């Protein structure tokens, strides 16, 4: 059984108070809290097991290297990759997408070539493509969502032309909670000879992922959203695409030999991992993935679906609240505004006084904010340890905010 009380006891921060109230942490879309096993793993790695990896023959270096490299296999299992050699370790989704932009896309694109994006992409899956637009004349084509926040896969496929070189889409909107049928998009894009990059920062958190089934060429994840340390993450790169990529960063570990005359690069995936990595962060990330896989992502998804349905039922009774994104199968992520002149920052401040932590702003999704016609929203994003009682606490805090600002 999914024992949420037991799970909550694994996260020490959830027992604290904020402003004299029990903490209700609903900012998981920005960063999730860490279970004690991850905290212990990080502490142990620094206290008793730390050394640099790949470079030493002594005991500690070998131990750190073994623990660090074991995470590659854990990520491959978590994502359903065919081989751990398709996993590039990095600091998170932002680095991963930039690696694809510089290492794969830039050498293959020229002025007039196109990249298809949805309007609800996070800036991490927008800004690197703007670099190519500014520097090489690449054209970005935008696909809108419908009134419910849904993204029609066929609309994405219809945007593909003979000039399209890449489709880059999120699997789950960090603002709307919309779950995207990335498998249908990938299949359709591949039929037209176009590779697909999936931003899995939110999608991998809320549901099981199998990149082999999806068929995508690139899939990026971020450790701190998956209950692991900040500064950890990875990108899955299909072996065929990896063979086409040039190195993104140069330095140690990504080389076999360096001479005055040139460089012989290391084999993939090491070819794309320059310098001393986030050793301890990555080890902690591996422990977080162990924790998630032991819980079972199917069980996490079912729990969060229950929270989503309960919250949507409660929100339906608040006629002064506007929720952005109403697709029935969305993740438990809710962006909203309240009637009146109150700014999202003011609303979140009132909620914080009640111990309820939400995010306020544009959520690194400027094009989507423009599409929705709002400058900012509040966002309550639920995780595997949240409860229906915390939904009720959010409702109570929202009613106070409405009373103050109405």
Descriptive account of the structure:
Helices cover 40% and strands 17% of the residues. It is of the alpha/beta class and 406 residues long. It folds into two domains: 4-30 and 296-405, Alpha-Beta Complex (Aspartate Aminotransferase, domain 1), CATH 3.90.1150.10; 39-294, Aspartate Aminotransferase, domain 2 (3-Layer(aba) Sandwich), CATH 3.40.640. The strands form five sheets. Strands 4-10-9-8-7-5-6 form a seven-stranded mixed sheet, sandwiched between helices. Strands 13-14-17-16 form a four-stranded antiparallel sheet, covered by helices on one side. Helix 7 (182-191) links the parallel strand 7 and strand 8 (196-199). Helix 3 packs across helix 11 (279-295). The longest helix is centred in the first third of the chain and has 21 residues, at 59-79. It is globular, with a radius of gyration of 22 Å.
Overall structural class, as computed from helix and strand content, comes to alpha/beta
- Gap from first CA to last CA: 43 Å
The fraction of residues assigned to DSSP E strands is 15-25%
CATH fold-level topology of the largest domain: Aspartate Aminotransferase, domain 2
Give the count of structural domains. 2
């Amino acid at each position: 059984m999914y024992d949420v009380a037991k799970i909550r006891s694994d996260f020490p921060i959830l027992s604290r108070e904020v402003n004299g109230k029990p903490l209700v942490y609903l900012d998981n879309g920005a960063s999730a809290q860490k279970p004690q096993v991850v905290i212990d793993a990080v502490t142990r790695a620094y206290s008793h097991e730390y050394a640099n990896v790949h470079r030493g023959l002594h005991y500690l270096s070998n131990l750190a290297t073994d623990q660090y490299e074991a995470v590659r296999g854990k990520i491959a299992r978590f994502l359903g990759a065919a081989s751990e050699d398709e996993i590039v370790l990095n600091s998170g989704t932002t680095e991963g997408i930039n690696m694809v932009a510089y290492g794969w896309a830039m050498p293959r694109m020229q002025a007039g070539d196109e990249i298809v994006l949805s309007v609800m992409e996070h800036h991490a899956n927008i800004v690197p493509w703007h670099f190519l637009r500014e520097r090489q004349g690449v054209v970005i084509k935008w696909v809108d969502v419908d009134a419910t926040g849904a993204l029609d896969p066929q609309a994405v496929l219809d945007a593909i032309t003979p000039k399209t070189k890449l489709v880059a889409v999120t699997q789950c909107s960090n603002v709307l909670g919309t779950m995207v049928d990335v498998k249908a998009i990938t299949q359709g894009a591949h039929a037209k000879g176009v590779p697909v990059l999936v931003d899995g920062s939110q999608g991998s958190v809320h549901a099981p992922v199998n990149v082999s089934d999806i068929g995508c060429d690139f899939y990026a994840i971020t450790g701190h959203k998956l209950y692991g340390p900040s500064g950890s993450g990875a990108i899955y790169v299909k072996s065929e695409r990896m063979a086409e990529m040039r190195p993104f960063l140069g330095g140690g570990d990504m080389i076999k030999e360096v001479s005055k005359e040139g460089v012989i690069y290391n084999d993939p995936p090491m070819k794309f991992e320059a310098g001393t990595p986030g050793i301890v962060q990555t080890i902690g990330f591996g422990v977080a993935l162990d924790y998630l896989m032991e819980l079972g992502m199917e069980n996490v998804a079912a729990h969060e679906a229950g929270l989503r349905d309960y919250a949507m039922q409660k929100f339906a009774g608040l006629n002064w609240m506007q929720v952005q994104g109403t697709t029935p199968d969305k993740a438990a992520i809710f962006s909203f505004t309240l009637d009146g002149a109150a700014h999202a920052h003011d609303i979140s401040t009132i909620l914080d006084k009640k111990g309820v932590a939400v995010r306020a702003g544009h959520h690194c999704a400027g094009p989507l904010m423009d599409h929705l016609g709002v400058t900012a929203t509040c966002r309550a994003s639920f995780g595997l340890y949240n409860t229906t009682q915390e939904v009720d606490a959010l409702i109570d805090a929202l009613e106070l905010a409405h009373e103050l600002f109405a």
